Amino acid sequence: MLLKTTSAAALLVAAAGAAQAQDDAMGEIVPLTGWNPDEVAQDAWNISAMMDSEVYGVGGEEIGEVEDVIIGPDGRLVAIVAEVGGFWDIGDTHIGVPWDEVEFGSPYQSVMIPVTEENVEEYDVYEMSGLPGSALGEQVTAGLDDAELTRAWRASELIGDYARMMGENDERQVYGYVMDMLVDDGEVVATLVNPTPSYGYGVYGYPAYTDYGAGWDPGSPYYDMPYTMDDIEGIQPMTTYDAE
């Protein structure tokens, strides 16, 4: 197995091109006309299904649980953060596992990772997370005009944020709150919002954005969508979302 420093370098290469990937893949506004979140959900899974799920080691033994999911600025999943090792001599510890080393149980409610008591130090969450203050996070933001642009972030940072849209006089107004995200092929493809009673009931799915003009802004209590209240008139709630 390669040491985690090699994996960190691979993540760094992916993150370094994230700003351009943002502009090319995630910055373009998707028209809501013809957008069908129920169709998107057919091949996707909701990220909340993985939060707090059981984590199993190479021998099939339960070794901990998922604490968070790390998402890159291009919307792709980078790693998971897990708390493991309560029965090991080292006690409880948090680790970061690259996404390409995570295997899934069905339906994404358990994960298997190649972590043992002997190699757990290779999965140092400080080295692997890409979050502010981590070794990878410091490397990712070095030398950039806008360090926030390529910051990885935690799924738990977005879930529970207020979702806003453009209202009158080009001012943002609260539409509801973010309750989940849909993931397909390792990428966040939709943001699920529960609106306030003034705008409807149920769960509404919208295209996901990582452009900092509209979308995720790590540390902010708001998720800003590039739509107006007129744009969402007539939009129907999802029929396929099943909260975990």
From TrEMBL:
Domain PRC-barrel: 52-103
Keyword hit for Signal: yes
First and last residue of the signal peptide: 1-21
Keywords of the record: Signal
SUPFAM superfamilies per UniProt: PRC-barrel domain
Keyword Acetylation among record annotations: no
A family per Pfam: PRC
Name assigned to this protein: Sporulation protein YlmC, PRC-barrel domain family
UniProt organism field: Tranquillimonas alkanivorans
Organismal lineage: Bacteria, Pseudomonadati, Pseudomonadota, Alphaproteobacteria, Rhodobacterales
